[in-house]
Structures are given as structure tokens and as C-alpha cells.
Amino acid sequence: MKRLFLVVVAVLSMTATFAENGNKKYVNSNLDAYVLNVNVYRLGEALHLDNSQYDAVRDINDEFQYDLKRAGVTKEKNRQKMLDMAVMKNLRNMRQVLDSKQYRTYLMLLNATLTNRGLK
């Protein structure tokens, strides 16, 4: 009886360990989608930014990356709301810096990026 009890405890411990590791793997892979490393130099070339716009876009992008990381680590029920807020904040800030042609191009690039990462 004592051995049976020890075997049951061992099996349950191993099952809990495997389940925990699997859950961590899912959380880490899900968090990777929220890490957005943008090459601002290449973005600047694509948008034809001048020097003042380049500095502003770099700052806005840094803030957007921070907001996305926060959205990635928040509880799942609030994650989509935080993602939407981060995107809207980013678009509002970019709208102030970019002209209409640059803004349309940026919308297209951001939409493609979010879709490819599975965040849309």
C-alpha cells in the first residue's frame, strides 16, 4: 500500500511538471508575437522620412514596442483590449508626424506586420 501511494505521488508530480513546462512554452511563444523589433532606418527609407520625422518615428516606435510588450504579458482577457489601445495610440501619434502618403504606407506596413504575427 505504501509503494502504491508513492507511485501515485510520483506519477502525479511528473504529470504536473510536464503540464507546467508545456504551459510555459505556450506563454513564451505567445509572448514572442508581441515583441516587435522594427528597423527604424529601413522604415524611414520606406516612408521617405526627413530628419525630424525620423527622430519622432523612432520615439513613437520605442513607445509602441513597450506598449506591445505590456500587452503580451497581461492577462489573456485584457490582452486584446491593450493591443487595440497600443495600436490606436501608435496610429494617432504617427498621424501627427507623417503626411497623408506616408501615413497610408505606414498603415499598409503595420497591417501586414500585425497580420503576419497573428495579432489582428
What does this entry look like structurally?
The chain has 120 residues and is an all-alpha fold. The protein has five helices and no strands. 11% of the residues are buried. Residues 19-28 have low confidence and may be disordered.
Number of H- or I-type helical stretches: 5
Annotation, overall tally of beta strands: 0
Class from helix and strand fractions: mainly alpha
* Spatial shape: elongated
Helix content: over 70%
User: What are the low-pLDDT stretches, counting only 5+ consecutive residues below 50?
Assistant: 19-28
Largest sheet geometry: none
Q: Could you give a short description of this structure?
A:
This protein is mostly helical and 120 residues long. It has helices at residues 2-32, 40-47, 51-73, 76-97, 100-116. The chain has five helices and no strands.
Task: Give a quick set of tags describing it.
elongated
